[in-house]
Amino acid sequence: MVRAGLTVGRLVAAAADLADEAGFENVTVSALARRFGVKDASLYSHVRSLRELRTRVALLAGGELIDRIAAAVAGRAGRDALGAFADAYRAYAREHPGRYAATQIRVDQSLVATSPEFERTAEITYGMLRGYGLHEPDLTDAVRLLRSTFHGYCLLEAAGGFGAPRDVAASWAKAVDALHTALTHWPREEKTR
Description:
Order of helices and strands: HHHHHHHHHH
């Protein structure tokens, strides 16, 4: 029998909160069941597996992240849009470390294809980069550059990996300026005929 009040949405939201509190790697069906005061088996009527639960947390977090980014970049272009995008990304990673970690897992490609969160992420990210005059395959390369730069910076910052006395926020601003310069002077791939 399904416990009254338990829904997939409530479970996923609680799992996301647990990820922020204890780390995404500590999100388990058992930990979530303890949070609701039920047995593990009670949750399997809502989610089939730990993998599904974590995937749902990743989709929730991805939606939250892109909503924040979309609001930040609305009406902006060029360096202003890039800076707003970057700052929203970093703020989310800092405020929601477990949810952010969830956004980095590999999600089944069939889910990606049907996910409104992933579609919106691509739309917002590629739209911002088109402002730099980029088209495929350069768009994909530029997305990979941004993601690896933002993710690497956020990971190092969270781990306390920046030991120099220079202000971390000032270094972040310089990194965004450097990305703007790189995007402005992107080495475009020659089109083949």
